[in-house]
Amino acid sequence: MSQDNRTASVRSIRSRFRAIAVLPFAMLFLAAGGDLLRQRGTTEPPLRIPTDVAWTRETLAIISRGDGFRGLLLARRCSHCHGEEGFSNVSMIPNLAGIDRSSFWKQMEDFKSGKRISAAMQEIATRSSARDSADLAAYYSILPTSSDSQDERSFPQAMRDPSRASMAIELILFGDGRRGIPPCQACHGPVGSVKGAPSLTTQNADYLLEQLNHFANGDRANDINIRMRSIARQLTDQERTALAEYYGAGFGPDTRAW
Hints:
Blueprint: H1 3-40, H2 57-64, H3 68-74, H4 79-82, H5 101-113, H6 119-126, H7 130-141, H8 165-173, H9 185-188, H10 205-217, H11 227-234, H12 237-248
């Protein structure tokens, strides 16, 4: 063996020896680090799959085949809470008139699978088939949102603090790039729409605020790509209130006017 080959062989042996010698210390360090993380409560949270719904051709076909007339008949069991014409008389309960079909269907499926928690809605959704949800979606999506003197809707609700309107307008139209917050209208209209993202134009203030708070603290986690959780956590309490009250007062931009 040449001198160069012997030298290379010796270096290789020394390198392997160092790796073997360092390995026990590395393992001890990693173990100690893991214990420290557990003590501090900073371990990674368990993986949460936000929804079982996938926007496939089959899914969209089910939704598009919804029968509005059959949905009208099914909606008789929904009117007690959501109103005869899709507008609730309780501000904590969502309005369904004019809702996007895919948004409604997704929420029903999420209630059914337990991805979205609601004692009342989970029981109802569990008894509803995919066709039932599609028919209800078809019915509610065509209901007019204009005011009706004969219904008992709680919408709109006056803003408790009108001075918050400018704060809401800023977030709806422009968001806040410094915090990575996109404008609300980017998903909820009028600039664009996303499958499963409802219009907020005629939604009740107390319901919106409750949902924003649920997204912010993680109680609601059925948003795909963690979009709403990320945004809601960045918003301050005052900003969430401002947005909920602004939309709830009927001031939000109407996507159908564009």
